[in-house]
């Protein structure tokens, strides 16, 4: 018992001694140079803000994709009306991921850029790129190594973090690119790439006619998605009635259904697929625009 007490006493004494030494700090750290402090602060913020931004971006994208995916599976499996589900999911996604300054993702980007650049400006670009003693070695980065100044380097590093996050999303959520594209957010995430696309533009026989041109059999190679847009010249037929932006096309391809609305054009898309096996899949296109209503149908052929 005495021997045990003796050993505990020694351990406690050693712990107290070490704590005291740590509290006083070593002579080197107590008299660190401004250059050392600047390098330490820059390195720390790159680490902390990089980790935080990675987690926030991943969380926001996955949350959005899960909400969108829920709606599509409800439609594909249970064939129920999911218009309200889609509207709520897209509102949530836009609040999280939209390009506006007050979206959750935009705020996370601004926080990374501001905190990291502020910490690293005291160090400056030279030591950040330097591969000599005391440098942070970003000069070895194939993408960022030629950055002209600190803000440019910080943005480049953030771009690399985004590449990593978006690559993870593409792996764990294979439908992410189509879901984000149909929600109008695809252009915000070029690193979650769509498969190759077969493009079809839906038009009417003449401007304001309200009569759809049948696209015929739509041939889509295996591995492609089908990307449908509306013709902004011929499809609108509500000129002089209301605000002229009430038209919508509802496109159903097999078990998938999407809508595109006015104003039509290349930024308003409906994505289907991807198609990975030989198949013939029926499609139905329905136009509604105040007094104009028409339908046309056919098949998507995947040879």
SSE blueprint:
Layout: H1 2-24, H2 27-30, H3 34-78, H4 83-97, H5 104-121, H6 125-129, H7 150-172, H8 176-182, E1 197-202, E2 218-219, E3 225-230, E4 248-253, E5 256-261, E6 269-272, E7 279-289, E8 292-302
Parallel strand pairs: 1-3, 2-8
Antiparallel strand pairs: 3-6, 4-5, 4-7, 7-8
Helix pairs in contact: 3-4, 3-5, 3-7, 5-7
The strands making up the biggest β-sheet line up spatially as 2-8-7-4-5
Shape: elongated
Radius of gyration: 28 Å
Q: Give the distance, in angstroms, between the N- and C-terminal Cα atoms.
A: 85 Å
What low-confidence regions span 5 or more consecutive residues with pLDDT below 50? Answer: 1-29
Summed over residues and divided by their number, the pLDDT gives a mean of 88
* Number of beta strands: 8
- Give the proportion of residues in helices: 40-55%
- H/E order of the elements? HHHHHHHHEEEEEEEE
Number of helices: 8
User: Number of domains in the coordinates?
Assistant: 2
Question: Sheet with the most strands?
Answer: 5 strands, mixed
Structural class: alpha/beta
Strand content bin? 15-25%
